[in-house]
Amino acid sequence: SFLTRILSGTALALSLGAAALPVSAAEYRIAVGDGAGGTQEALGKAFVAALEEKSGGKMTGKLFLNGQLGDEQDTVTAAATGTLDFSILAINNITPFSPTVGTLTLPYVILSQEDAEKVTQGEIGRQMVDQTVEDAGVRIIGWAYSGFRVLTNSKKPIATVADLQGVVVRVPKNEIMIETYKSWGINPTPMAWGETFAALQQKVVDGQDNPYMTVNAMKFYEVQKYVTNLRYLFSIEPLIVSEALFQSLSPEEQQQVLEAGQEATQVSAQFLRDQENKIKEELVGRGMEITEPADEEKEFIELATTKVWPKFYDQIGGKEVLDGVLTSLGRDPV
Ligand code: MLT
After folding, report:
1. What is the complex's ipTM, to 2 decimals?
2. Which of 21, 68, 110, 122 could bond 64 through an S-S bridge, CB–CB 3.0 to 4.6 Å?
3. What are phi and psi for residue 324, nearest 5 degrees?
4. What are residue 80's DSSP bridge partners?
5. Pocket test for ligand 1, best of 66, 72, 219 (most atoms within 8 A of CB)
6. Which is nearest to 264 in space by CA: 42, 61, 29, 38?
7. Which atom from ligand 1 is nearest to the alpha carbon of 146?
């Protein structure tokens, strides 16, 4: 009826009004390393929506994409000193500040999205959160999952370790990733994330590795042609909050932040499940050529696991830390 329509119109107007943020709402700055369209942005958007909802509009956040608030590794320092509120970045860019999370960047440890979710959301993930607070002054409150880091390059199809020789590959400033490429016989070029696109474009380097989602969000298809479907590192990309900021919140607000982070984690996990294949096809449509590693990647796997793992036992807190992760995933300890 007419009356119902008027009433529901009023209800709509009221609910829209109620959704507007209180004038005193705290708006947090959230650094995002990648461009639009990736899993980092999906996690960030879902976090802001959940935070607004849970806090009744008293807390919100604004995303600054594409490293506008600083390079990924620098945002860790900024959050630790309290000059930045939140950051979403790849786990490999936290490792230099919290070596234990390096376990998650060891090659061929996380072998699927299910593995990634299990480790990060279970007891091991909780211990890593505590350790990171202690080591780095930032608290991981959510996790994005971005898929395996595939190797892209502008020179040629790469299927074997032999094919890789002579190719100049950019890696993050992450010792484990550097050593992984060394185990495959090349000396990679460590470089900040924010400089990577330009370096590929200007051919300072031939290639890099990152998930399909990131290759797309960063428009790397404009400057890279060949993709090798490596599965050595499943990219996990946490949402961190400055521990100083977190400790300044009331227990109720802390709870709201944590719950919003958990909700956003689920959204991000679903986003990857829904989008990865579609994005992969889009990249092929844009002219990228995908190569499968020869012999089911055996040579890459053997070299990396035998040469790299033992080098980092001390740094990650002992071989038993890796064994703990492996057994939690139903695999044999080393
Ligand atoms: C890196 O390669 O430095 C990171 O994985 C970039 C990212 O956050 O996507």
Report:
1. 0.95
2. 68
3. -60, -45
4. none
5. 72
6. 42
7. 9
Q: Ligand 1 atom closest to Cα of 211? A: 9
The answer to whether 214 and 280 have CB atoms below 8 angstroms apart is no
3-state helix vs strand vs coil in the chain, percent to 5: 55, 15, 30
Q: Could you tell me the distance, in angstroms and rounded to a whole number, from the CA of residue 94 to the centre of ligand 1?
A: 11
List CB contacts of 37: < 8 A, sequence separation 6 or more: 213, 216, 217
The whole-number pLDDT of residue 232 equals: 98
The pLDDT mean for the chain works out to 93
Phi-psi region at 187: left, alpha or beta (left = phi > 0; alpha = psi -120 to 50): beta
> Which residue matches tokens 């970045």?
89
Note whether 51 and 249 are within 8 A (CB): no
Give pLDDT, residue 290: 98
Would you call 142 helix, strand, or coil by DSSP? Answer: strand
Cα 159 to the chain's mean position, in Å? 26
Nearest-10 Cα torsion for 55, 57, 59, 64: 130
For residue 219, the 8-state DSSP code is: T
Residue 160 has what pLDDT? 98
CB neighbourhood size of 285 (10 A): 9
Q: Is the CB of 33 under 6 A from ligand 1?
A: yes
Tokens of 142: 């959510």
Ligand 1 pocket residue status of 172, Cβ below 6 Å = yes
Q: Closest ligand 1 atom, CA of 237?
A: 8
For residue 67 and ligand 1, the question of a CB distance below 6 A is answered with no
Report the pLDDT value the prediction gives residue 19, as an integer from 0 to 100.
53
C-alpha pair distances (Å), 168 with each of 127, 129, 190, 238, 308: 36, 34, 11, 28, 20
